[in-house]
Amino acid sequence: MLVAVLVLSVVVALWADSQLNRVDATPAEQISNTAGTNWLLVGSDSRQGLSDEDIARLGTGGDIGVGRTDTIMLLHLPTTGEATLMSIPRDSYVNIPGWGMDKVNAAFSVGGPELLTQTVEEATGLRIDHYAEIGMGGLANMVDSVGGVEMCPAEPIQDPLANLDIQAGCQEFDGATALGYVRTRATALGDLDRVVRQREFFSALLSTATSPATLLNPFRFFPMISNAVSTFSVGDGDHVWHLARMVLAMRGGIKTETIPIAYFEDYDVGNVAIWDDVGSEALFEQMR
After folding, report:
1. 3-class SS of residue 258
2. Is residue 119 in a domain?
3. 232-270: string of b/e by CB count within 10 Å (b at 16+)?
């Protein structure tokens, strides 16, 4: 029986790895190696592949092509110790190589994963080792495949633009509600509140996906694996065992951070977030 389980595990892993969508996310020139292992985690607002029924259910609006990045996070896994999950506000005003100063999420729009990776590396001084991206439909499907995710919002949120209407307190989110929850900016601090909710949701989804109730239930485990490999995009050199290693490392605990913002300013590209130079450099230095 043990041999059969091991063989099945290997077969499932190889099948899952072959189904992953791979993209070119590694710049031609990267900065020098830094400590530990760094993942760039991206949530795209692309609607590609969504049916009319999906668009109506999820409240995403029509197809906008390649899309932009609603979520940008850097996950740092040290050789020893606790992992750090750092949010990069999408309106951060940074230099985009070859394009000049703009909001960080513009790098994805004009140059895809490769330019976004290069932009984040140059802005933070942290080398990106792995890349993972998921779109709107993929996120919602992942939540539904594990039977929902429990979240405990501190306040009620109503946001027709995100198709969201929730009350305060612990409750079970289905895929559509979870998607609205990580998309909405309809709270006092806008995008700064949103990046906190995104990290909370990511941790809750990870906990649910790796719980015995999911891993030991074939009616949840196999749909989850199928949805994950068909909707995730990873870098050319990334494999399913890298994703598994990331998940296992995060099970040991996660420290969450947001890049410190000094102030907001209006420029020709819109209202942007200006980083606190001293605070952000101190945060990056802890991970180098």
Report:
1. strand
2. yes
3. bbbbeebbbebbeebeebbeeebebbbbebeeeeeeeee
Tell me the pTM: 0.83
Q: What is the dihedral of CA 184, 190, 193, 196, to 10 degrees?
A: 60
Q: Is residue 128 part of a domain?
A: yes
Q: Tell me the CB-side half-sphere exposure of residue 231, using CA atoms within 13 A.
A: 26
Give the CA count within 13 Å in the CB-facing half-sphere of 242. 18
Domain count, the chain: 1
Structural domain that includes position 212 = 34-287
- Residue identified by tokens 């942290």 is 126
Bin 68: left if φ > 0, else alpha if -120 < ψ < 50, else beta. Answer: beta
Task: Classify residue 2: in a domain, yes or no.
Answer: no
CB 233 within 8 A of CB 62: no
Nearest CA to 64 among 42, 43, 44, 47?
47
- The predicted structure's pLDDT at residue 64: 47
In a domain, 95, yes or no: yes
CATH code where residue 234 lies: 3.40.630.190
Q: Per residue in 117-146, pLDDT tens?
A: 999 999 999 999 999 988 766 778 888 888
Q: Cβ neighbours of residue 285 under 8 Å, at least 6 residues apart?
A: none
